[in-house]
Amino acid sequence: MSRPEQKAEDKANKDAETAPDASVKEDAGRQAQEDAKAEADKKAKAEAEKAAQRPHEDAKAEAACRTELKTLGVTFEEAPVVNDGAACGIDKPVLLKGLPGGVKVEPEATVRCEAALQVTRWLDASVKPSLEAAMPGETITVLSQASAYVCKNRNGAEEGKISEHAFGNALDIAGFTLKSGKTITIRPADKEPTLEGAFQRAITEAACLYFTTVLDPGSDAAHQNHLHLDVKERRGGYRYCW
Predict the structure, then answer these.
(1) Which domain holds residue 19?
(2) Alpha-carbon dihedral 156, 91, 86, 174, rounded to 10 degrees
(3) What is the spatial distance between Cα 50 and Cα 71, in angstroms, rounded to a whole number?
(4) Are 24 and 143 in a shared domain?
(5) Is residue 80 over pLDDT 90?
(6) What's the total number of domains in the chain?
(7) Reported pTM
(8) Which Pfam families does the record cross-reference, listed alphabetically (predicted)?
(9) What is the pLDDT of residues 150-189, one digit of tens each?
């Protein structure tokens, strides 16, 4: 056998020895398919669990809520249906533009009617009287909101439970502008010995009379500059207030 022929044969034998066995390749391919299916099933299950959290919006209840908003003097418009997949969305949203007494909502907020209604009740029954006690003669002209509807998980996490913002159930209150031009911003104020600190503590405590979840700057790092208020339905009237 000539030298070139010998080299070719040796190379062929070496390739045959080092080539993966066909059955090994087949097993690897099967495992990859099983892993991909398992991952897809996991994602589908997570989406189904999130979709199950989306609240049912009863037509009669929504109509009654809108009637009450009008009676209270709330400025709002009907907003287009929001549908960001199986989990996120609002079937019958409203665009909240203003609250009683000429209080503007900035920016305007897309929420479920129930969230708009409870913000109105809280403002009229608790926020305004607390402000009058802390700063006589002052009135609120603007309610500044940091977040209304947005499709996201809680605290913006990549995984985990979906936020009530994703259902239009929540508003994040960043602060207020007063008639004098003064602004009050939500901040850590648990031990602040000022009238503004007392005002913030008063309206935070009162918020739990109207909302089922109240998270303030003392609750965790994700809420250092706003009040998270939502109307998540819970069994037995349970409320989560921090």
Answers:
(1) 3-53
(2) 0
(3) 35
(4) no
(5) yes
(6) 2
(7) 0.77
(8) Extensin-like_C
(9) 998 866 555 668 899 999 999 999 999 999 999 999 999 9
